[in-house]
């Protein structure tokens, strides 16, 4: 069941706020239940305490489009990996002939650009075949190369390294991620273009990779984003997140539509800054999920508290 007005069902009133905050802290700190062993409860408490003590995780996805450096909070010495500018771009094997304006901006802002096998075909079809050199500065093509067409290979091989990786136990997406991390070290942020499109199994595989390649609770490997041209999707690990979605002095990058999806397992979430905010709200596939929510016109910072990992997706404005 999809919830667009979940607060009405939960009765998230001011009188219930204090109690809900306590329940939220119980969840994140791991208070345990009657069915848990003492060791399980202790483990959850220690893990939750570490997450809570580290403070909210800051997100500045606007920089992916604008190319601007995330603002450094007062007292931040700049050592946190998420404050570093720049990201690696991976182009997946999905057509990108639509939304080329915003894709060109993301391309320009990346410090390296990799095609995952047939992703090179998509770049060639979108621009190269018509003599448009927007994507000519491709750095590498990697995969088992079973999808790479001859004309695409000929077009790019004068500038891009072509790497054949025959491993059948990893996807071309996974091979590209491993290549980027091997070349540039961790942490390195990665944006995958062409995500969540085409076949359903491929789309779910792309979402699977967000979990597979981000195992640390504070993203020590770097952060990953899926960019479809219509939306940006990323993984919110257990804890408190603050997501900058608007700046006063600039035109909006994001549209109003937001979804928070518990793809892996059920979670309890609390949100601030959305039209239908929720407090200590249980969400799971097969139960209640929050889709088609709206960022309020005055909201600059969306806050999400979650007891388990959830996907956050937000619609893009087109340029």
UniProtKB/TrEMBL annotation:
UniProt keyword annotations, A-Z: ATP-binding, Kinase, Nucleotide-binding, Transferase
Pfam families documented for this protein: TPK_B1_binding, TPK_catalytic
Molecular function in Gene Ontology: ATP binding; kinase activity; thiamine binding; thiamine diphosphokinase activity
One Gene Ontology biological process: thiamine diphosphate biosynthetic process
Organism in which the protein naturally occurs: Podospora aff. communis PSN243
InterPro entries referenced in this protein's UniProt entry, alphabetically: Thi_PPkinase, Thiamin_PyroPKinase_B1-bd, TPK_B1-bd_sf, TPK_catalytic, TPK_catalytic_sf
SUPFAM superfamilies: Thiamin pyrophosphokinase, catalytic domain, Thiamin pyrophosphokinase, substrate-binding domain
NCBIfam families attached to this UniProt entry: thi_PPkinase
Domain Thiamin pyrophosphokinase thiamin-binding: 239-311
Keyword Protein biosynthesis in annotation: no
Protein name from the UniProt record: Thiamine pyrophosphokinase
